[in-house]
Amino acid sequence: MTLALDAAAQDLLFREARTANTFTDEPVTDEQVQAIYDLVKYGPTAFNQSPLRITLVRSAEARERLVRHMAEGNQPKTAAAPLVAILSADNEFHEELPALFPHFPQAKDAFFAERPVREGSAKLNAALQAAYFIIGVRAAGLAAGPMTGLDFTGVQKEFLDDDHTPLMVVNIGKPGEDAWFPRSPRLSYDEVITTV
User: Does residue 84 contact residue 130 with C-beta atoms inside 8 Å?
Assistant: First the structure.
């Protein structure tokens, strides 16, 4: 059986795509980010809760503040990328459920009245959306450099509030010179897939 997606698109999104470590200085526009979001917002989440929030770091002052919270090896990449996005989970996502899940607006209170339940659900579903976002960046012909080597508490205090939990920082742009590490191995089908 073959995939419905053509081979070039498969390569763009998966086989040839890598985590970029260097970028050109070509800017990433708001229009590109809008197109990425308009595509990836359709990825599924539980109850259509859509808890991902994206903070675009564009100003030099904000970039400098963010770089201080990145792990040492990630600081140069974050300083030089054309665009940096902080991806976070909105722990108050349930407030949007009556609009996002209109056929069962009671889900807001029936399932998500307690904060610890919301935090767990927000983190899982925002992580799903973060993966969609990375694929969307690739679909736009750009490279993504997702990173979790950072001071999460520092990033939250600097850029977010207590209702938002940072998940990762993603550098975005056209890949630069020597952007890629060699492709790392992947597990085989038989190592991952079990039939019961």
Answer: no
